[in-house]
Design a protein that fits this description.
elongated; 14 strands; alpha/beta
């Protein structure tokens, strides 16, 4: 099963995307529909809402007057908290019931207007955001929904802004053009990413690059890494003591294979071998391929680690699981921070990688061909670490801090 979060600002066209995904076979859980269901007459939340807010939120036919209720809570944060305390447990219970009833091969789409505001991105394998400029959405609300301009602006201002939505989005579906253009984008997304992603998760298949093609520096790589790390944290906390973006995509301005490398620090590899850890990672979309994945240690020994890889065909990612404090764990952080701090070394590394990528035939050959450069670079990186008193540090909550 693939869990997809779908969101977008009011007037963005999210409902159009939701309807098309349903027509393609997705199991759509509409948060607004569920929220209405749990406060229907006869439901437990209905009685509690009426008791808290009074008969003025009840229509003559006995149903809740949702606009009246909305006016009460929109301008009163305390009232909104009370409403959420009543309805949210019922909403989540009903949501889980629908998801549990979906078939094992389902793409489950949670249509959630406040996904970004609630910080829920890590709950899903993928987050889709339908986006349109504020002025475009404002005009739609006025022209198509009959809202006053003041009301529309207030509703837009009450939601997350586009910067927050872009930070949360694994996929941004632009909807400033025609409805047909949006539908074409959704159809392509379904066949090229969602269907194969679901199959990969279900069958334990990793995504991978077929050739060591280098990409220009992508300023969104760190945000992509943050989203992946949040999913891993949710899946295997507290075993994951540290979570870091490492490798070339973690170094601003450096050309790299379009592979996001992540490091998970654990107290011991025995904990990473526990079936519950492996299963939780796989369920989150990070499978463990067969084989031994130890590093070639810079001290001439093998540095043990475990390896997981993303199932997402649209985002190749490698997860290196190492013991906190081990040579391999520390070296990955030191190498990243050294390259971040030294422009000349970044240029030298980029030149070497570009030359190799043009001559080798496979990703494996590319990795092996870099080893002699790494041996020499290790001396310079360690000298930098000693000179700058570099060391990795971890706070008590288990989140990586900046290195000194």
């Amino acid at each position: 099963m693939l869990r997809v979060g779908l969101t977008g600002g009011i007037g963005s066209g999210k409902s159009t995307v939701s309807a098309q995904l349903a027509s393609l076979g997705a199991v759509v859980v509409d948060a607004d529909t569920v929220a209405r269901e749990v406060v229907e007459p006869g439901m437990p939340a209905y009685a509690a809402v009426v008791e808290r807010f009074g008969p003025e939120v009840v229509r003559p036919d006995g149903a809740l007057d949702r606009p009246a209720l909305g006016r009460l809570v929109f301008a009163d944060p305390a009232a909104l908290r009370d409403l959420e305390a009543i309805t949210h447990p019922q909403i989540w219970a009903r949501t889980e019931e629908i998801v549990a009833g979906a078939p094992p091969d389902a793409v489950v789409v949670h249509d959630m207007p406040l996904l970004v505001e609630k910080g829920m991105g890590a709950d899903y394998h993928l987050v889709l955001v339908v986006g349109a400029a504020e002025q475009v959405r404002l005009r739609r609300l006025v022209d198509q929904r009959g809202m006053s301009e003041a009301d529309a602006k207030a509703r837009i201002a009450a939601q997350a802004d586009d910067d927050a939505r872009r930070a949360a989005a694994d996929v941004w579906l632009d909807n400033e053009g025609t409805t047909e253009a949006l539908r074409v984008s959704v159809l392509r997304l379904w066949h090229e990413r969602l269907e194969p992603f679901e199959a990969n998760v279900r069958h334990g298949i990793r995504s991978r690059l077929s050739h060591p093609t280098l990409s220009p520096p992508d300023p969104t790589w760190p945000a992509q890494a943050d989203r992946l790390l949040a999913r891993i944290r949710r899946a295997v906390h507290p075993t994951a003591v540290t979570l870091d973006h490492i490798g070339s995509t973690a170094v601003p301005g450096l050309v790299a294979k379009d592979v996001v490398d992540l490091q998970v620090g654990v107290p011991s590899l025995a904990q990473a071998d526990d079936p519950s850890f492996v299963t939780a990672m796989a369920a989150a979309g990070f499978v463990r391929p067969d084989g031994v994945w130890d590093d070639n240690g810079k001290d001439g020994t093998r540095w043990p680690k475990r390896f997981h890889a993303s199932c997402d065909p649209g985002r190749v990612a490698h997860v290196h699981v190492r013991e906190v404090g081990s040579p391999g764990w520390a070296w990955a952080l030191m190498f990243r921070d050294w390259l971040r701090s030294d422009p000349a070394e970044r240029v030298g590394y980029a030149t070497m990688k570009t030359e190799l990528a043009a001559t080798v035939a496979s990703v494996t050959d590319y990795a092996e061909a870099k080893e002699p450069w790494f041996e020499d670079a290790d001396v310079r990186a360690r000298a930098w670490a000693q000179r700058t008193a570099w060391r990795p540090s971890v706070d008590g909550s288990g989140d990586r801090l900046r290195t000194r």
